[in-house]
Design brief:
- The protein is globular, with a radius of gyration of 21 Å.
- α4 packs parallel to α9.
- It contains twelve helices and two strands, in the order αααααααααββααα.
- A two-stranded antiparallel sheet has the order 1-2.
- The protein has one domain.
- The chain has 320 residues and is mainly alpha-helical.
- A hairpin with a 2-residue loop joins β1 and β2.
């Protein structure tokens, strides 16, 4: 039935809608919550930073565990009648169930909606955008409705849980140390899955007792390993960053809003510059582990290195 829905939606595609849903697809990229985390972290919104990190953390961990348990290939691999929108193929790596893009969108849109829940329009907009991110993956032919619905339900439950955890963390002096340990545990978990999980070479679909099809899964499995380690590298970067902040940086935001805006803009520009300049080097290390190292460097820069530089600039220019 899921495939039938995709085929029906495929018949109504037009270039304009392709462009619209490509935009919503970008809103489900992991870089979005990372950018939001960077901004709130540099502006000193500690609790909001914890919430964004924890939502991202649990969404990714649960999503990837389900992916490697079920190992379901993309719908366009299971049925040649499903033709994905070309622009979606770059991010349609790894297994299909559940949807990582939808989980990522829920990881930051959910907290943003909950934080402003007294004004009902904000949760409504957040929920609508999250649903549109999920639908964009169906429209583009890279996920089934089942993939999206499961991610939406999990995202909602994770956000409720994360707010409770953040309330407990916010007044603790060792909050960053706890998050460093949590992030490192997540990194170890994803690393162990990558190393020891036997990823299937084929995926068998049984249509009847004597009618089945074997789909080759080698490329999908390798892509899944890369996705696992990319997120594992991000968690390793968070772990090192939180640890350094707790032990050495002790980041505090300036009272100057102009200074905070300028340093945040420069920090984001440097983040993208580091990614652009170092990506060829890290990709040369290896398809799977090179991406992990790149993510670790980027996240460490956001959480610890740039705040350390900001502290230096505060003392030099603001006498802070």
């Amino acid at each position: 039935m899921d495939i039938d829905i995709l085929l029906a939606i495929q018949d109504i595609r037009v270039p304009f809608l392709d462009g619209v849903f490509t935009v919503f697809r970008y809103l489900g990229e992991p870089i979005v919550p990372i950018i939001i985390f960077a901004i709130v972290w540099w502006f000193g919104y500690r609790k909001q930073g914890f919430i964004i990190f924890l939502s991202f953390y649990f969404s990714i961990i649960i999503n990837f565990i389900l992916k490697v348990i079920f190992c379901i290939p993309r719908p366009f691999l299971r049925d040649t009648g499903v033709v994905p929108v070309g622009s979606a193929l770059d991010t349609a790596t790894g297994y299909s169930f559940p949807s990582t893009h939808t989980a990522v969108a829920a990881a930051y849109l959910g907290p943003l909606g909950m934080a402003h829940r007294k004004k009902i329009v904000f949760p409504i907009i957040a929920g609508l955008v999250c649903c549109l991110v999920g639908f964009s993956r169906i429209y583009m032919g890279v996920h089934t409705p089942q993939d999206i619905l499961v991610s939406l339900v999990l995202g909602f439950l994770i956000v409720l849980m994360v707010f409770k955890i953040a309330e407990w963390l916010i007044d603790r002096a060792d909050a960053e140390l706890i998050l460093a340990a949590v992030a490192f545990a997540g990194f170890v978990l994803l690393l162990l899955i990558t190393i020891f999980r036997h990823f299937p070479e084929v995926y068998t679909v049984f249509y009847a007792p004597d009618l089945y099809v074997n789909y080759p899964m080698n490329e999908t499995s390798i892509a899944m390993q890369r996705d696992l380690m990319t997120m594992g590298g991000a968690l390793f970067g968070f772990s090192l960053g939180f640890l350094c902040d707790h032990l050495f940086v002790h980041y505090e935001v300036s009272d100057s809003r102009v200074f905070n805006i300028v340093t945040s803009v420069i920090g984001l520009a440097l983040t993208f510059l580091i990614k652009t300049l170092t990506q060829p080097f890290f990709e040369g290390i290896g398809y799977v582990y090179g991406h992990a190292l790149l993510q670790a460097v980027i996240i460490f820069f956001i959480v610890a290195l740039w705040p350390m530089i900001i502290r230096f600039l505060q003392k030099k220019f603001l006498r802070y």
